[in-house]
Amino acid sequence: MDANLREYVVDRSQGFCEYCLISQRYFSERFQIEHVIAHQHRGETIASNLAIACSRCNRHKGPNLAGIDPESGALTRLFNPRSDTWIEHFVQRSSGIIEGLTAIGRTTTYVLDFNAERRVELRAAIEKLATKEL
Questions:
Q1: pTM for the whole thing?
Q2: What are residue 29's phi and psi, to 5 degrees?
Q3: C-beta separation of 70 from 34 below 8 A
Q4: How does pLDDT run across 19-46, given as a tens digit for each residue?
Q5: What φ, ψ does residue 35 adopt, rounded to 5°?
Q6: What is the largest CA-CA distance in the chain?
Q7: Pfam families annotated for this entry (predicted)?
Q8: What does each C-alpha distance from 105 to 11, 85, 115 come to in angstroms?
Q9: Range scoring the smallest mean pLDDT among 89-93, 101-105, 125-129
């Protein structure tokens, strides 16, 4: 990947994981550029197929394109940060929990393990800090 494409993808994310929306500023390791559709599924290294992901989201997503909706049991595609709008599929509660509002949101929340205990605690602490800063 050339430097200009990398810079564009990083800038477009505004410093946030495009899956769980956690800010890069809370991590020492640099977020990763992720193929929304993996190479093994013929995904290209082009801007419209790249997203910034924290290492946890990237690791859990892997090459997955879909998962099983925990509510309906149906095979459901994962959230695509290039074509989907986050607030249509998810809501983050002040407790730090990310709730899936749609089948896509529920499936992505489950597959990417958004609500692992330490991540929920981190998001709750960030929310509390942000409230104090206001």
A1: 0.92
A2: -85, 140
A3: no
A4: 999 999 999 899 999 999 999 999 999 9
A5: -85, 115
A6: 46
A7: HNH
A8: 25, 10, 12
A9: 125-129
